[in-house]
Design a protein that fits this description.
The complex is a heterodimer of chains A (about 220) and B (about 350). With about 220 residues, chain A is mostly beta strands. Chain A has one helix and twelve strands, in the order αββββββββββββ. In chain A, the strands form two sheets. An eight-stranded antiparallel β-barrel of chain A has the order 2-3-4-5-6-9-10-11. In chain A, strands 7-8 form a two-stranded antiparallel sheet. Chain A is elongated, with a radius of gyration of 24 Å. By secondary structure, chain B is an alpha/beta fold. The chains are: A mainly beta (about 220), B alpha/beta (about 350). Strand 7 of chain A pairs parallel with strand 1 of chain B, so a sheet runs across the interface.
Chain lengths: ~220, ~350
């Protein structure tokens, strides 16, 4: 029994040591970010703004046998966005989204991210909208449009200037696919390209909490 | 902050509607007609000073009026008349929310009536209005002109390869595929393409169910490509050509097309026929048909032409076109439409 116990403890200890030697994880700084972007379907204009709350951010150093390997930051964010695009003669779409963002920032500053989240859309039709009553009288519907549930999925890349130059700004390009429903009786998919920047108010210098996390 | 608020208001209201009716030789206007859960897009383009309007009822179900708005039509019809491109419910750029239960023929005829009422409201009750139904649009047009006294809302009807009787359509499509296919095989033209079509038609002889009907339509759609004298229509290049300039909402058009093509509505269509009520039609009618239209064979056009009671009627056949005369024999199409409208407006 004692031998078995010692064996198990030894295995656990070795596993922990192994984990520590492979990578070092540190809780990184958490800063709220503001986002502004051009939000379009390539040729149709739009804008998007949002606020980003860091949920979890970890600095990771992957160690190799000979010296330090690559290091990067893994972030999980919750974002709230208000966006709009204008498709002439079709509709103007204002939509609110809440996204779960997974982002990896390399030590060089390059960013890769993926996001998914639900939302709400309100469209305004791209032309005067008429309604004809049964008696033949015709009226104009003001602010005609529809409410839709929305799900957005997106991915993109960018560059975080705070990694190298201490600038509290990052730029990004991201492709989102909006799916709005029930659109007529089906789902309306709309690819949207976002080009913009994120600003971190209050961030002057990167601070790292000296807290190690063991797997 | 105040400026930001004002800017937001401007953005909000720039997306909303403005009522501005223009009359000129070169108008482009878009408005929507809301009915039974759908907001249907209507584009008026061309010469509204002419007071003559040609309302296109597109094919499908689920296609779009965008495809009829070609450069050739702009140059050869829109300079004289105003073309009205109406996207039916669940088609093209038409929008709505959870309205699939209203996708049926009666509803579409009511939609058409309301589109006409709005056109007259905007452009004047004394306008000269013509309906131009193509393919599935021919079925809506046939239903419309045989319903109540609706035909008197328009000056004339132009039927371009339209189907007014789906069961008869299937029978005639099968006959034409067999007859033309066997001739083409005897001439050693596209033998490998025709053989499976002929085999299918030999096995499926009548009382077609919805799957057989759709298979016949699929064969009919490709069959005209095996007639060497018929111009091949590349829809993909058509879309590429006009998608940006005409501001196609591409994904909406695709979603609507996929939904409409697979909806239960097609079961209703499969048994729809208006041959028995066409004798009610007394308004001037022009029938334009492609000689090599397998989707709506020439005999279907003859059935339509022979059954209407109109004394002022004309049928013209294009030897160079299949189902899409507007693209395959555009000069012939525009000249015939122009002559008919000019004589009856």
């Amino acid at each position: 029994m004692l031998k078995t116990g010692i064996s198990i403890l030894t295995i656990i200890y070795c596993t922990l040591c192994q984990a520590q030697s492979d990578s070092i994880k540190k809780l990184a700084d958490r800063h709220l970010k503001l986002k502004f972007s051009y939000n379009s379907s390539l040729i149709y204009p739009g804008i998007s703004s949002g606020i980003e709350f860091p949920f979890q951010q970890i600095d990771i150093q992957r160690l190799k046998k000979r010296g330090i390997g690559k290091s990067f930051t893994k972030g999980r964010f919750l974002t709230g966005n208000l966006s709009w695009y204008h498709h002439p003669y079709f509709h103007d779409n204002f939509y609110l989204t809440a996204e779960w963002v997974m982002r990896r920032t390399k030590s060089s500053g390059f960013i890769f991210e993926f996001s998914v989240g639900p939302g709400y859309s309100r469209t305004f039709l791209g032309g005067t909208t008429y309604r004809v009553a049964d008696n033949g009288s015709i009226s104009i519907i003001r602010h005609a449009g529809y409410n839709y549930a929305l799900v957005t999925v997106g991915g993109g890349f960018g560059y975080d200037f705070s990694m190298k130059r201490q600038l509290p700004v990052s730029i990004f390009g991201k492709m989102n696919l909006l799916s709005m429903f029930p659109y007529n009786s089906t789902i309306y998919f709309r690819p949207v390209l976002e080009l913009g920047f994120r600003y971190m108010p209050g961030r002057i210098k990167s601070k790292v909490t000296k807290e190690s996390i063991l797997k | 902050m105040r400026k930001l608020f004002l800017f937001s208001l401007i953005l909000l209201f720039s997306g909303c509607q403005k009522e501005k009716i223009a009359f000129s030789r070169n108008v482009t206007e878009v408005f929507y007609v809301e009915n039974a859960g759908a907001s249907m897009r209507v584009m008026v383009q061309g010469n509204t000073l002419s007071n003559t309007y040609i309302l296109i009822i597109h094919g499908g179900p689920g296609a779009s009026a965008f495809f009829y708005n070609t450069k050739y039509i702009s140059q050869n019809l829109e300079d004289k008349y105003a073309m009205v491109y109406w996207d039916q419910r669940d088609a093209g750029a038409s929008q709505g929310s959870g309205n699939g239960g209203n996708l049926n023929l009666d509803q579409m005829v009511e939609d058409l009536k309301k589109v006409i009422q709005v056109l007259k409201f905007r452009y004047g009750k004394n306008m000269s209005l013509f309906l131009l139904g193509h393919s599935f649009g021919g079925l809506i047009a046939a239903d419309f002109v045989t319903s109540s006294d609706y035909q008197y809302m328009i000056k004339g009807l132009i039927n371009v390869d339209g189907s007014h009787n789906y069961p008869l359509n299937d029978t005639l499509t099968r006959q034409m595929l067999l007859t033309v296919g066997q001739y083409q095989v005897a001439q050693k033209r596209h033998v490998d393409k025709w053989k499976p079509i002929i085999s299918y038609c030999n096995v499926h002889t009548g009382n077609f169910n919805i799957e057989e009907s759709q298979q016949l339509e699929d064969y009919a759609a490709v069959a005209e490509n095996y007639i060497d004298s018929i111009k091949y229509v590349n829809y993909f290049s058509q879309v590429l050509k006009y998608a940006v300039t005409d501001k196609y909402p591409l994904t909406a058009m695709l979603s609507n097309l996929i939904y409409s093509e697979d909806s239960n509505f097609n079961k209703e269509l499969a048994i729809s026929e208006f041959s028995s009520s066409l004798n009610k039609v007394t308004i001037p009618v022009l029938v334009l048909w492609g000689k090599y239209d397998f989707i709506c064979p020439l005999a279907l056009g003859e059935d339509f032409f022979n059954r209407i009671s109109s004394t002022d009627k004309k049928m013209v056949i294009s030897p160079r076109s299949g189902h899409n005369m507007i693209l395959q024999d555009k000069k012939f199409f525009c000249e015939e439409v122009d002559a008919f409208v000019l004589n009856h407006r």
